[in-house]
Amino acid sequence: MMADSITDPIETEAPDDSGSVTLRRYSYQVHIAVQAVLEMLAGGAVEHVTCEHIEDILVARRGDPRCADGSLFWDFQQIKTRDAVEPWSLADMISKRPLKSLWRTHTTVRNTGLVYQLTAGIEGHLDPGDSGVTALSKGLGAQHAACRRRVAKHLEVPEDGALDEFLTLIRVRTLVRREDVEARNTRVLADLGPKLPMSVIDALYNELLRRTFAATEGRPPERWTELLATDSPSPKVLGKRITARVVDDVRQRLTRPDHVLLEDVSASIQGSETALVRKLRQGAASSEVIEEAQMLRAQADHHRLREQALGTWPDDSAFEMDLDERLLILVRRTARAHKELAKPADGIFDGLQQALLDNPSAYDRRPLYAQDSVLLMGRACAVSDECRFNWGDARDAS
User: Fold this and answer.
1) Do 261 and 367 share a domain, yes or no?
2) Which end of the chain is more exposed for a tag (fewer CB within 10 A), N or C?
3) 241, 272, 303: which is the final residue of a domain?
């Protein structure tokens, strides 16, 4: 029997509301929720953000093509973190249980008339060699026999149309690691207020963080009632929802230049390698090169962290500084040779790979990265992500 249609999930009783009382566990989750608030500040499609109701984060967006009548599109997000740096496989997705929570959410809201998706936000990156988790991440799990079978077993449900409907709604969003998330968000906020000193940017970010923490606890900040857009908000809305009006005072402190594009802001917030991707795009890099650069960066980071965990990474930072300086010299020489290309980033990327393949020992003298050209290319991408070089500018091509 179909339930009565609703217009807002806040009217639905949450199946488990225990998250509001365990705030300390969710500091990373709060930083992720702030990302949606930043999209709202950028003038994007985010209408409001609700914390710890039904799911960890609930983001409502307007203008989604899936909402033919102009209603809001709801993104229920379950956030998962872990200390391991290895890529996530389908087995990892099952063991960390985000699908259990999302299935519970789906059964709660499926007959309410909402248009929605179910997002598993994971700290790290997916294993590109695992076809099951790749299919799951794109809403194609029902079409992947092994994925469908394993998820059915995990959820203890039959392999039927109800499971297929659920898998079609699933998306997996890869998230920046916890040690980088605050710096990444602050950098995005600085892009929105380029004329403000960093001391003000930091203060504004801390204020956004404080208000989002309060929403996660279900505790309204001062003057929340006056700032909400609804005339008679329910207590749950009062305590857990952040609207544009709630952060309007922060918006007024920002001077957003016309040339900041919304898609660039969104990529800065959500991209797992923001500065690297931005620079590659500036050099007109192909999608294949961007994906390869992100993968190589992740492999190099994994190698470095593993060596540190084993105690074999040298304490003397001079070795890494020497490697990075040699890579910078090589990159700049390669960039000069390809700067006139219509797509300079692709030429620089390929040229750099070839140079490292031909003579890796000339750069990795310690060696820190096993004189492996693949890992060295990943380290070069990491150096770029630290804003130390770019990949050319397609606008300069003649």
Assistant:
1) no
2) N
3) 272
Q: How far apart are CA 134 and CA 25, in angstroms?
A: 28
DSSP 106-152: HHHHTTTT-EEEEEEEEES-B-TT-HHHHHHHTT-GGG-HHHHHHHH
What DSSP string runs through 277-322? HHHHHHTT--HHHHHHHHHHHHHHHHHHHHHHHHT-S-S-THHHHH
Do 5 and 128 share a domain, yes or no? Answer: yes
Distance CA 119, CA 76 (A): 6
Q: Per-residue DSSP letters for 232-274?
A: S--HHHHHHEEETTTTHHHHHH----TT--HHHHHHHHH-TTH
Residues 6+ apart with CB under 8 A from 393: 282, 283, 344
Report yes or no: 323 and 360 within 8 Å, Cβ to Cβ: no
3-state secondary structure of 80: strand
109-120: string of b/e by CB count within 10 Å (b at 16+)?
bbebebebbbbb
Residues 224 and 262 in one domain: yes
Nearest of 46, 52, 64 to residue 115 by alpha carbon: 64
Same domain, 248 and 314: no
Number of independent structural domains in the chain: 2
From 383, 298, 320, select the one nearest 87 (Cα to Cα): 298
- What pTM did the predictor assign? 0.63
Contact 108, 18 (CB under 8 A): no
Over residues 58-110, the pLDDT tens digits come to: 999 998 888 878 889 999 999 999 888 889 999 999 999 999 999 999 999 99
Amino acid at residue number 14: A
Q: Which of 213, 244, 272 is the last residue of a domain?
A: 272
Phi, psi of 57 (to 5 degrees): -135, 140
**Structural domain boundaries enclosing 335:** 274-396
Q: What separation, in Å, do the N-terminal and C-terminal C-alpha atoms of the chain show?
A: 65
Residue found under tokens 């509001």: 20
**102 shares a domain with 83:** yes
pLDDT tens digits for range 229-285: 444 556 655 668 888 888 887 887 775 544 344 545 555 555 544 578 878 888 888
CA distances to 90, 131, 150, 247 from 145, rounded to whole Å, are 13, 11, 9, 46
Cβ count within 10 A of residue 2:
8
Complete DSSP assignment for 164-202: HHHHHHEEEEEE--HHHHHHHHHHHHHHHSTTS-HHHHH
